[in-house]
Task: structure prediction
Amino acid sequence: MTTRSLGPLAGLHWLRRSINLGRRNPRAVFGGAALLAGVALVPSIVQVLLLGAVQPGGEGAMAVALAATLLSLVLMPPLIGGYLRVIDASERGLPARSTDVFAPFKQGQGAGRLISLGLLITGLYLLMAWAVVSIFGDGLLTWYQQVAELAQRPPVEPEDLPAPPDGFGRVLGLVSLLALFLGGVYAIGFGQVALGARRVGAAIGDGIVGTLKNLLPLLVLAIVAMAAMLVIALVLGMVLAVLGVVGALVHPLVGAALALPVYLGFLLVLYVVLFGVMYFLWRDVCGDVPPPPANPGEVAA
Result:
């Protein structure tokens, strides 16, 4: 399988195209994102309900959290694969419906391979993160346990939190770079399984090679995305605060009613953009559609 190497500005093109995503079939693209976001909440809702009903101790709470995580790892990969197929069909001008996100759960549509891929990449991330923490994060696990125990006994004041150990910033930076790398592997791998009909092992191999070839555009994309999110979060926070104050003049529930659609709309757009970037990354690096013509800042190989 051939993977392409793109120039440093390729990530900006993935972002730009993902922002424009949905113009050809907005009902399928945004409806599919809404279904995906809704199902993504199910494990958290189950976790909250179980914690409220059983009220377990520290170990019990960890067991419930682990069960919710496993539920998410089973539910989400097929839905992500289905949503990538919705995006692909929409971009190609083919018929697509929002409910097609559930299509991988049908027999023979690849749900098992998508779940296996998600589990393997998650396991790889945990293994590599554990290695980073073990080598560079002396005392970090003890600190995390202390913070987790405090979180079980709210309210927690800032002064109650223990100081992070030395090297915390270094570990955070290394784990962030690891997340960036595996994010590329995740995007390409899921594209290869959901859209390229590749086997799981081959898809992970394609993801690793494709990501290594495109680390620079991924890094540029991450920097631009972080800066953009800071600005968007600031603006969104101001808008929500204004709506809350205006609505509260009538009734506090009115403020919440005004702010909620704005917040949910933002989350919906965020889902579309995130998975749009994932799709265009895969398509330019491994897909059968060639990437856009190179510009002075972008050289395709």
Remarks:
- DSSP finds ten helices and no strands in the chain.
- Confidence is low (pLDDT under 50) at residues 294-301.
- The two ends are 14 Å apart (CA to CA).
